[in-house]
Amino acid sequence: MRQSYKVAVVGGGFAGLVTARELKREGLLVTVFEKADHVGGIWLYNSGVETDLLGLDPNREIVHSSLYRSLRVNLPRQIMGFTDYPFMKKEGGDPRTFPGHEEVLKFLEDFVRDFRLMELIRFGHEVVRVELTDEARHKWVVESRTRETESRWESKEELFEAVVICNGKHTEPKIAEFPGRDAWPGLQMHSHSYRTPEQFENKIVVLIGNGSSAKDILKEISPLASQVHQAIRGPDSQLKRLENHDNAWQHSMIECARKDGKVVFQDGSIVDADVIIHCTGYKFHFPFLRSNGTVTVDDNRVGPLYKHVFPPSLAP
Fold first, then answer.
1. Residue of higher predicted confidence among 309 and 117
2. For 200, which of 70, 94, 140, 221 could close a Cys bridge (C-beta 3.0–4.6 Å)?
3. Which domain holds residue 297?
């Protein structure tokens, strides 16, 4: 493959950085487009949250990171590194097998330094369009923009022979649907916008979901909250008090939410709640990709992709 072969990588997180390294090793001309001013992707903590806490407004200013301040990895560090670059404990760092997010970011920073990837990365460059312009010659146009002032952006178009999409999947929230949701008067938010527990002091909180974020947030807010009620699906979703918590209960899913602030669960119980937190996952979202049907997202599945990587019509 000729050395003038230009490849764009969208995103400077875990996937984007290791992709850039492998492409660089092959002698290709690699450009990494990163919206933030630092590497890390999802692992770059941002204490700020979106103005739309549910993430429903398509015109909102998107905050990429979904990290909360206390987050630790839920996989042992031994399986989070790369074959030739393990995630080792380092002097002065977090020595735990399940370290905090700061340690992961430091690992990625070291990875960039040791493989000299910084020269490939354009920080502050948001990709707004990726489009195949010449299918026969495999030419893609990548349009990116940089913020010049608070209200003015400068855009630029460039041609590449290939594009690798590494923008992550934890930015576009998936929200639970139930009758009365939009008219319910309390505070609703997605776990994407959860950072610290202090705002839930003395509140009655309903958590929707039973994944890692739901369990972490429940554990963190329950010492401060007045009550915490977790709504889950599944055969074990009957009403019961949660172990190791004096003020937390498990319910079946929400039946409806009322305009008077009450939340009704399918198990028949009713709670006069202050907050509903949707810990309900994310949707794959590629707003910049114009593939003319080559790749689509259907029921949160991306395809068709050979080995979940290449569209069959474009596979090498």
1. 117
2. 221
3. 6-168+286-314
